[in-house]
Structures are given as C-alpha cells and as structure tokens.
Specification:
- The chain has three domains: about 100 residues, Orthogonal Bundle (Helix Hairpins); about 50 residues, SH3 type barrels (Roll); about 80 residues, Alpha-Beta Plaits, CATH 3.30.70.100.
- Helices cover about 55% and strands about 20% of the residues.
- The protein contains seven helices and ten strands.
- Strands 4-3-2-1-5 form a five-stranded antiparallel β-sheet. It has a three-stranded antiparallel β-sheet with strand order 7-9-8, covered by helices on one side.
- Helix 1 runs antiparallel to helix 2 and helix 6 crosses helix 7.
Length: about 270
C-alpha cells in the first residue's frame, strides 16, 4: 500500500475525528453555559421564595456539579468512547478516592445533615466544640464562624454535628441571668423594689414573660438576689450591660452595700 492509497484514508479519519472533537467541544461550551443558566434560575427562584441562604447555596452547588458531570459524559460519548465503560471507570475511581478521603466524605455527609435538619443557619450565633461565633457559611466540608472580636473559625462539619450545638439565635426571645449580692443588714424588699422599678422602666425588657426577682441563695457573707428578665435575642448584651450599671448606681444612691463583686454571668450574643 503506497502513500496515494493511505492519504485518502488518513484524511477521512482525521476529518471524522475532527468533527467529533469539534462536536465534543461544542457540547462542553453549550452544556456549561446551559448549566450555569439553570443554576442561576434555580437560585433566583429559591431567593424569591425566601428559602434559607444556606439551603440556596448548597442546592445550587449540587445542581451545578450534577449538570457539569452530565455534560462531560455527553462530550466523552461524542468522541466515540463507550460511556458505560467511562461511567464504570468513574465509579471505580470514585470508590478509591472515597476510601482515601473518608474523613472528607464524613464532612460532606455532615454538611448535608446540617442543611436538611437546619440545626444552624447563616447569621445565627452558635456555640459548639468549645468555640462560638456567628455562622457565616455552611460549606460542603466545613462551617465558617465569625467570633465577636472578628476572628474566623473553620469547624469541620463532622465535628460540628457530632458535638453539642448551642444555638443562641434560634428563638426570638432570650432570658438574661444576673445575680446581685447584698449584705444581711440590707432590706430585701426594698432591694427587690429598686430592681423591679428599673426593669419596669426599661423599654427593651419584655412584660411577658414577667421578670423573676427573688432571693436565690444565702451565702456566708451575702444574700444573693437572682434577676431573670426576658428580652429580644438581639438586645441581650445591650440590656445586660445597661441594667447591671443602673442597678449598681441605684444601690449606691440607696446605700445598699455589695459585700463582694457579683459573679460574672457570661451571656453569649453576636
């Protein structure tokens, strides 16, 4: 067989293969464009329906990944590669990668569970694993928290879901727990009336449920008054600091002694 016989066959093969390559590239370009468009449409629909941002982000990411994978398989099939074998090879490769990345896959599974059960949401203040902060993002592998002093914490999803989660923002209202100590010589009723008047005058303290003001314990050197007002969650720190200062100043005016510094009651709030 001479070159005159080989050349036409070679040209025919190159032409056919070139058409397949161009078709595969066209499938990739058009398919990726359609995938992005559908993802944007889904995002707009979910946002208009006021779906939680965490669920929107996760859903659009999952849809984009699935569509991209479908487009790639279609492009490979256009090149003449048997897609069944290709999918089987992808499955085998995925199994090998899955065994090597068990920890990462556990984080992915935990991320899905966090999305489904909505234990944490973007914008909420939570505590878990010894750290606390406002949820900035629930990702596929980890959840991002921003602390009160603007530090960023990345918590693996598997650690987050396997630990206790304290969600300070889930409910609209919160109770503030305060303790004020007075001496045994001071008038308890007078003290309680002073605290009650300050609470009643504060516009941010809720009338219902009513605030608790009661003698909580009798220690060796003091009578401890427990104060439990209810406020909107967003007002916790503001009211706590303001009420503490006002009560201390009023005690000074009325000559009510504080035997020793009151115990700090830490209230976490973004």
């Amino acid at each position: 067989m001479n070159w005159k016989e080989i050349l036409p066959e070679l040209q025919k093969y190159v032409t056919e293969f070139g058409i397949h390559i161009v078709s595969a590239i066209a499938i990739l370009l058009i398919g990726f464009w359609i995938s992005k468009t559908l993802t944007k449409i889904l995002k707009k629909v979910l946002v208009r329906r006021n779906v939680d941002f965490t669920l929107v982000h996760f859903s659009t990411s999952a849809l984009k990944f699935a569509l991209y994978l479908f487009v790639i398989i279609a492009a490979v099939g256009q090149l003449g590669i048997e897609t069944t074998s290709f999918i089987a090879a992808l499955g085998a490769a995925g199994l090998a990668i899955g065994l090597a990345l068990q920890g990462s896959l556990a984080n992915v599974a935990a991320g899905v569970m966090l999305i489904i059960f909505r234990q944490v949401k973007v914008g909420q203040f939570v505590e878990s694993g010894g750290v606390s902060g406002t949820v900035e993002k629930v990702g596929i592998f980890n959840t991002t928290l921003v602390t009160i002093d603007n530090k960023v914490i990345f918590i693996p999803n598997s650690k987050l879901i396997n630990d206790n989660i304290i969600n300070y923002s889930e409910k609209d209202t919160r109770r503030i727990d305060l303790v004020f100590s007075i001496s045994y010589e001071d008038d308890i009723d007078k003290t309680k009336n002073i605290i009650r008047s300050l609470i009643d005058a504060d516009p941010d303290i809720l009338k219902e449920p009513a605030a608790l003001i009661a003698v909580g314990e009798l220690s060796d050197n003091s009578v401890n008054i427990f104060v439990r007002p209810w406020v909107m969650t967003s007002k916790v720190l503001e009211v706590k600091f303001r009420l503490t200062e006002l009560i201390k100043k009023k005690f000074d005016e009325e000559n009510i002694s504080i035997p020793f510094p009151q115990s700090d009651v830490y209230v976490h709030q973004r």
